[in-house]
Amino acid sequence: MGWGLAAPALLWTAAFFVLPFAAMVALSFARMEGREVVQGFDPGNYVRIFTDWTMLKALLNSLEITVVVTVVSVVLAYPLAAIIAFRVPAQWQRLALLLAVLPFWTSYVVRSYAWLLVLGQNGVVNKALLGLGLIAEPLEIAATRTATVIGFVHFFVMLLTLTIYANLIQLSPNYARAAADLGAGRWQTFRHVILPLTLPGVVTGAFLTFVLCIGDYITPQILGGNAELTLPQLIMLQMGRSGNFPLASALSVVLMAVVTLAYFASSRWLRLDRV
Amino acid sequence: MAQTATLPLTALALLAAASPSFAQELNALVWCDHTDPALIEPFEEKFGVTVNLKEYEGTAAGLQILEQSQPGEWDVLVIDAVDVKRAVEGGFLAELPADDLPTRDFFPEVVMAENNMVDGKTYAVTEKFGYNTISFDKTKVDPADMQDMAALTSGKYDGRIGIYDYYLPVLGLVALGQGINTADITAENLGTLKEPLMALRAASKQVSDVVSAQTALATGEVDIVVGGGEWLTAVLAADNPNLDWTIPKQGGLRWAQSIGVVAGSTQPDLALEFVKYIVSPEGQARLATSSCYWGMPANARAGDALSLEQREMLRWNEQPEFLKRAQLYPIPDAALDTAMQDMWTEMLNQ
User: Residue B3: inside a domain, yes or no?
Assistant: First the structure.
């Protein structure tokens, strides 16, 4: 009975994940001869990824950007979620959450281009800073890694706020009261009681941020101005331009391996049921 | 009474369903300029069909879509003119009846029989062309400087340059700057382009796709776009008449896109009608001024269907001179193509 109920989902996963993934892995060991794909077992694509500095740098760029985005997003989202959970009256919390995730309602691509305008030399940020006399020359933000990080953080703070809020709201106020009874100050209560109890929500949100960020192609493409390549951009170049599907497959497998490593690193705290 | 009314109505409905002109659909794999309703709707109305359009970027991606599709799924293909042979070799294009196409009305340079024909047979026809050269804001840079590619890496415009993210035209421009014709780029001399390409990258602020390059130029993020041309600035000209483009003394590149009927199309006659509409003066004028990007119509008779302002924006009267100074895209073989893309990727990640 149980297997029968699970069968559609299992078949779906097998047809649209397991089989395509197996095909992708097999293709990653193929090679190109001219414009033709030659099937076989050639680890050349993987050797190239880890010996060609351009490829390796794209992987490192992706990791650096993703780690920075994840950390900054957590640091910004946690207090926001805490304010909504503990400071905003219960009847206003839904509205506060709605406002916090409002930018989700706009298209991802449109939002990225909007950021390009905001961060440009004649954009809102530079005009405000120039108007306030804080800078003499416009800052170079658009088409840099900083712009990519800002675009990502804007998106992922919303996601993290939701996951952390879901965790915080489940905490009984008795934990904080008990800590206070035992003489703990606010910081000690947060450090030794609240934070450990909300860690699953934080790690879950951080893991999702990591996965979505490291695989994103749009934001670095639009906001980064190709100032540097990330791994998804490199994959797109191999697919759209070169037609080198074996190399694109190998790069995708590496990307999936990185995500798998991130999963194992965070699995101790990961609670996907809290999402 | 009700029954007598129902019968003729049913008969009419059956007739309508049987008629091929009803609910017929044409599937076209195109570039974004074909998605402008102003271009497509007149054809749909005339033939009573729906044209389903799918955009793609990059020949490799387009051919991959065709390869993975069922025979007969696609009817029309728009493709980079220099890649027509590649599509023919892959068996993706059907032969066209050359006599039915108005190529005698085309600008002679863009008939491009050497690209659109294989073994004496016509497989595609040029529909639009333009230039990959230098676009700029004439209030922010000295237009005289833009006549010489050397000005780009002179230091005067460092950090104010955007590069169009397409390796073929930009490498072609770099080659012209080094005195190498685009047709003469080989695996042996490609290495000589690396240093000037990297120097151009070092002087530039960003490498962007079409929309980002337009945004950067329109917002003043950059003042020059290398690889740009009328296709980049024309749609912005109404809002910003300071944007201009030119072909420097070293020359520029001529891009061209072709259109053909996909081999195995189940409705080749309708597909051919679509091709004929696109290369007709009316279709050409609409395609040239598409909301996605502008370009020169291949059919010179389209000039009559364009307004004076549109012709000025396209620099209609300067075409004979421009056509003389522009060279075609490099047409690399697979090995050279890979080497060029590797160099481009290295440039992006330098």
Answer: no
